Amino acid sequence: MPFARLAAATTPTAHLGLGLAAVGRPGYITLGRDTDLPHARTVEALRERTFELLDAAHASGVRYIDAARSYGRSEEFLGDWLAARPDVRDVVIGSKWGYTYTADWRTDAEGPHEVKDHSPAAYDRQRAETAELLGDRLDLYQVHSVTPESPALTDKELHARLAALAAEGVTVGLSVSGPEQAAAIRAALDVTVDGEPLFRTVQATYNILETSAGPALAEAHDAGLTVLVKEGLANGRLADPYAPTALREVAEETGLGCDAVALAVLLAEPWAGVVLSGAATSAQLVSNLHAAAVDLDAGQVERLVGLVQDPAAYWEGRARLPWN
């Protein structure tokens, strides 16, 4: 299983990964992008930024990179970076299928920026697209944003395709989204092909505002799945200058950034395998990686736990964030 390479790594940031959602396309729902990204968000400008981040991440010991078909040109940028760095063979590459990017490199696109489709036909099309861009470097392929009603949990034809991919040596997983993440995770644990579990990883939103998936993620870990944590900074809401007062106070006490403190809480979870940074700049990445050095006392953790929100309210707030 490719994730064994992460467990064997000895660098202190081996359990932190880099996600490319923020730099693979010009529009996303992370706060602060007007200052984080180049004024002209051309394809070449974001390709250059992606290379900069990947170089900085690898030099700092990060060994998991996360992309997706719907993250604009993230797979293209990642594939180009890998081709330009042929000696870099120690990174684990994950991507996701199930959403199609439809914004045509615009931040002001009319309608949705991505469209979900978990059908076997969508898988066939997007698997071929990923293979063209990443070749044999793909280690993990996840169904993108599974919810309890997703056909990805029940479609036997799709399960057969995913099992065939696993037989080729690519780990099969899923990501989940929405206020019912826990239900989707538990349903996924019951999906088998020929008596064997189909999904070997689960990627979920978990942060100090949204903790509802925690018990189900612990169950997934106990069942042998690798857990990846996404949106650890709540789309920028837990980073400066947007962080709530309690987080800012604890960060000041530690001498590190709000982002590092928020990510440190996730790293402390015994079931967390990889916690993703969604950095859009090298400075943000460096600050995120300081999470490995944060040492919180029980009182500080208790103050942060007090920030948790009702899942429905959290996801309603997330849905109101603009694509910017």
Automatic annotation (TrEMBL):
Domain of life: Bacteria
Residues covered by the NADP-dependent oxidoreductase domain: 47-306
Name the record gives this protein: Aldo/keto reductase
